[in-house]
């Protein structure tokens, strides 16, 4: 029992230590451009989430799920895109690889260690 708890704590610690809090600047700018929390909450509701969770995502405390990324892109009118919301976007939307390369978005493997 103790070994399992220690293993969980160790794994949890490694996971948390390796996750850097990286704000999603485009989402942050888009949401902060809204005049008040009532409008922000309405946007979050259209994205099928809460404003609290949306803030956790935009400040980098929680990952953006693929489903949320699709809804944010749709509800923002494309001002915030799926590749901006997920660093592993190419795994979920391979059809975007060619389009984003044409738009100057970095390759999904750019900066990866071999």
The share of residues in extended strands comes to under 5%
* Contiguous uncertain segments of 5+ residues: 1-19, 109-114
How many helices does DSSP assign?
8
* Main sheet properties: none
Number of strands: 0
Distance N terminus to C terminus? 38 Å
The whole-number mean of residue pLDDT values reads: 80
Domains (count): 1
Structural class call reads mainly alpha
Taken in chain order, the helices and strands follow as HHHHHHHH
Shape: globular
Helix content: 55-70%
Q: Write down the Rg.
A: 17 Å
Q: Topology, please?
A:
Blueprint: H1 2-18, H2 25-32, H3 37-46, H4 51-58, H5 66-75, H6 82-85, H7 89-92, H8 96-102
Descriptors for this entry?
114 residues, 8 helices, mainly alpha
């Amino acid at each position: 029992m103790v070994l399992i708890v220690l293993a969980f704590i160790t794994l949890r610690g490694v996971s948390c230590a390796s996750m850097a809090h990286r704000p999603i600047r485009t989402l942050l700018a888009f949401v902060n451009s809204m005049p008040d929390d009532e409008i922000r909450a309405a946007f979050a509701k259209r994205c099928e989430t809460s404003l609290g969770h949306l803030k956790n995502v935009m400040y980098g405390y929680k990952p953006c799920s693929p489903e949320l990324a699709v809804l944010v892109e749709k509800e923002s009118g494309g001002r915030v895109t799926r590749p901006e919301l997920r660093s592993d976007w190419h795994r979920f939307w391979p059809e975007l690889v060619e389009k984003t390369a044409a738009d100057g978005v970095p390759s999904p493997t750019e900066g990866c260690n071999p």
